[in-house]
Amino acid sequence: MSQIYSPSSTPVYETRPFSVASQKAVRIYPGGVGGGQSVNILSATGPGNVARIQLAAGWGYVTPVDVAQRLLITIVVDGQTYTAPLGMFMLWDGWSTLNNSTGPSTALQASSSQFFLSKYLGIAIGGDAQMGGYRRINIPYQSSISITVSNPSDNATSAFVYSQVEYYPGVAPAGLYPPTQKVFHMVTNDWRTSSIVPDQVVTFLPTVSGVGELESLYFVSSAAGSLFGAENWLELAPIISFDGNLFSYRGCEDFFGTQFYGMFGITRGDEYGQGISFAGQNLGTTDAVTYWTGYRYFKNCPLRFNSSLGINWTNLDTAFGNPATQVGSCVVYYTES
Question: Which pTM was predicted?
Fold first, then answer.
């Protein structure tokens, strides 16, 4: 069994100064075009902890709709580099087709209720081809941290970036964080570049060794066709292996706490929920693709491991329904060393 962290009976409070690093309306271009293809949104030395990252990015409705989702975030913490598309890191993927390239989208307006704010994750809209939101995320660093947003060479146009990174410099008060949250790790599978087949096993997190805890899992999936209420690939949930134990809710809609498919079964809480369920033709668009995204945090129900942790997901066989054709994931976990 995983170890249990028992905090002190005496409350521990944050005593370090609250700090914010911000950028406003910095225009970055696709790689090599016009220069300035990246912007640093945080650079700090010495020990400390990042607590929250808030971002808005995009251009205007005359540009492709997924400019913001394609931007990359690169986190270099104590010399270790982690990179993910904002579509995965902020769970923006899946909303990209709710706009069009010529003007305000009625589909987007009809789906405005799908944008939401919760304790750890928020997703908002600022206009066509513009995404915004925040992610509460503990990123401890011992010597240095640098966070950069860049515009990859395959993006269609430039983008403006707005950011606020909240962090606490200095050594954290003893007992504020459990010892299993000492070292930050992130593993990402990009949904946009994925291509999967029926029965394929997708590794969300290769098995790692050591002592630590799982922070969160973001999930993005899609399949061709307007499959509202028939996203059968969700019948198989991620399987988490830890210390020789297996953890599974059998279905994605159960694992992410929604219990149902479809837009009318959306459930969102602080710990888990559904990002979006969107079948293009159901909102009168020409996009005949169905999207389903979800998030799961392990804050109030910690999943700590003493020896190993790994996460896999299996795509459904066509004999049992509609398999996914693209799947992505973003896993954040910590170790003691």
Answer: 0.90
